[in-house]
Amino acid sequence: MKLLPSPLLVITDRHQARHPIEAIAEGIGQAGGRWLLLRDKDLEPAERRGVAARLSVIARRHGMHLSVGRDVDLAAEFGASVHLQSAAAVGAARQRLGPGAIIGVSAHGPADVEAAAAADADYATLSPIFLTSSKPGYGPALGVAAIQEAAKVGIAIVALGGVTADAARPCLDAGAAGVAVMGDVMRSGDPGGSVSGLLKALLS
After folding, report:
1. Could you tell me if 164 and 144 are in contact, meaning their C-beta atoms sit under 8 angstroms apart?
2. Helix or strand or coil: residue 124?
3. How confident is the model at residue 138, as a pLDDT?
4. Which residues touch 182 (CB under 8 Å, ≥6 apart)?
5. DSSP alpha helices (H): ranges in 64-190?
6. Pairing, β 103-107 against β 156-160
7. pTM for the structure as a whole
8. Structural class in CATH, domain 8-203
9. pLDDT tens digits for 133-159?
C-alpha cells in the first residue's frame, strides 16, 4: 500500500474561503501541511489551470504534495496527482500519470470503497463521516463505524465530511489513514493555525 503524503488532506473551495486560495495554500505550507487538493471544479479551464500553476509553485516551495480533482491532463501538466469521482476512471489515469502518482477516488459507502480497491486506487475518501456545513443536507452521516468497516477492504481510507480538530483523532483510531478537511480550513480567519491544530490532533 502506497504511503499517503500526509495524514491531512486540505481541499480547496474558493466559495467558502475567507482569503485567496493562494494565500491559504501558503498558510497551509507554513504550518506544516503537506497535501493540498485543488477542487474548485466550476472554474473555467483556463482559470483553473492558472490556479493550478500558482499552487504548484507554492507546493514546491513548501515540499507539499499537490493533487487535482478530476482533470487528469491538468494533473499531468503540473506533476500533480489526481482525485477522481469514479473508480472506473482509475485505469486511464494510472496509464497517463504513471505508477508513482497518488490516485484517489470518492466513496460514499462500502460498494464505492470496494470498487476503488479493485481498481487499484491508492486511497478512497469516505464521506460524509459527520454532518458538514460545507454541504448542508448532504448525508446521512456515516459515522466512525463506517471507517472501521471500510478499512477492512485493504485500501487507505481518508475520512471526509465535518472533520474538525476534535474529530480527527477518532477517525484515525477507527482505522482511517488520514482525514480530509475543506470548510474548517477554508472558512478560517487563520488557515495556518487551523492546520496546525489539525496536525497536532492527528500526530499526537
Report:
1. no
2. strand
3. 60
4. 10, 11, 12, 13, 16, 39, 134, 160
5. 72-77, 90-97, 110-118, 144-151, 165-173, 183-186
6. unpaired
7. 0.96
8. alpha beta
9. 655 556 689 999 999 999 999 999 999
CA 128, CA 164: separation in Å to the nearest integer?
13
d(CA 166, CA 171): 10
Instruction: Characterise 201 by phi-psi region: left (phi > 0), alpha (psi -120 to 50), beta (else).
Output: alpha
For residue 84, the surrounding DSSP H or E stretch is strand 81-84
Coil vs helix vs strand at 106:
strand
Q: Give the three cell numbers for residue 40.
A: 474548485
At 94-117, the pLDDT tens digits run 999 999 999 999 999 999 999 999
Locate the domains of the chain by residue range.
8-203
Rounded CA gap, 117 and 104, in Å?
10
Confidence of residue 132 (pLDDT cuts 50, 70, 90): confident
The answer to whether 105 and 90 have CB atoms below 8 angstroms apart is yes
CA geometry: angle 14, 181, 61, nearest 5 deg? 70
